[in-house]
Amino acid sequence: MPDQDAECFDLHSHSLASDGALAPAELVKRAANYGVTCLSLTDHDTLDGLPEAHQAAQEQGIRLINGIELSIRHDNREYHILGLDLDVNSPQLCERVAEQQQARIKRAQEIGRRLDKAAGLANSYERACELANSPAPGRPLFAKYLEQAGRVRNMRHAFNRFLKQGQSAFVATPWCNLEEAIEAIHAGGGQAVVAHPHGYGLTRKKLRQLLTAFKERGGDGLEVAMPGLTRQQQELLDECWRHFDLKVSAGSDFHSPEQKWLALGRLPPLPSDATPVWQSFSH
Question: Boundaries of each Polymerase/histidinol phosphatase N-terminal domain copy (predicted)?
Answer without folding.
Answer: 9-74
